[in-house]
Amino acid sequence: KQVAAVNKYDPPPEVVAAKDHMTHVMYSMLQPHRIFDSTLPSLDAPYPMLVLVGPLVCGKRELTHKICRQFNNFFRYGPCHTTRAAYFGEENRLDYYFVSQEAFDKMVNTGKFIATYKYSGYYYGLGRDTVESIAREGLATCIHLEIEGVRSLKNTYFKPRYILLVPMNKEKYEGHLRRKGLFSRPEIEEAVSRVDTYIQISQDFPGYFDAVVNTDELDEAFTELSFLVKAYLGLEPPAVVDSIQDVNSRAGAVITGTTRSSSVNEFLDSSAKNYPGGISDKLAAQLSSVEEASLQRRFSAARQALSGKAPSAYVQLFQR
């Protein structure tokens, strides 16, 4: 006899993320199929996405906006949808899409989300239309998430680069949360405790994050983050990249008792495996005339298939 068991009380976070992914796949399959703008020609070059990960109010939102402003020829910020109310200073459509629970559930049921997660009693979701609108401009998407969102996104076919932003000075971080005046004591205590959770994940699962940046000082964090992104995009000469690595080696451990989760060199290696900088322009520049013609024929056949047309077996013989 077969026995089925369902954990309805306290399932592991990986199970929650997997269930989230299955839900979105199921609902998306019920929608009309089309070729997404984020679908790139080569399987070796998935759509580029940069994800900044970190605990509550660690500076990831500010750093995400700064990166998108500095590298506006490469990245565009992708606001997530959320059911929580806006904090002071946040703007709808600029920081998040603030929606009701009813509207959020409707988006889930119509396959509008790539990934969703729940944090502190509220729901967050990365919308498919958000990513596709950015990809339509020929740009990469830059977003920020909590760890719950990362677990969900890692189940999808997207292959982002994840950079962990973590405040190593927990006393300073706690004081920063208190000065915000937005959170209750339990919320502050939970946020501070989650710093250890992020560090533990980075230690226990090497490579889970592609790089780690200390956000005790946001200006220094932005400088380091900019170096990482410039090197990833190929905007820094090799000599500068080498100097960055020398500084990192002299700096020692970012996480107490351990070495850096990922050096600049490792970050570059992991990035180069999937998608070099320059995105579609650089990919197109690598194609020969024969490859380009073959690619266009495949695109044409795919469009005809999606529209229900069946081309004649001899059509391509007469195309020049």
From TrEMBL:
Q: Which SUPFAM superfamilies match?
A: P-loop containing nucleoside triphosphate hydrolases
Task: Please name the GO terms that the record assigns under molecular function.
Answer: GMP kinase activity
Q: Where is the Guanylate kinase-like domain?
A: 47-230
Q: Which domain of life is it from?
A: Eukaryota
| Cellular component annotations (GO), alphabetically ordered | cytosol
Q: Which SMART domains match?
A: GuKc (SM00072)
User: Which InterPro entries does the entry mention?
Assistant: GK/Ca_channel_bsu, Guanylate_kin-like_dom, P-loop_NTPase
Query: Sorted alphabetically, which keywords does the UniProt record give?
Result: Kinase, Transferase
Query: One Pfam match, by short name?
Result: Guanylate_kin
Name of the molecule in the record: Leucine-rich repeat and guanylate kinase domain-containing protein
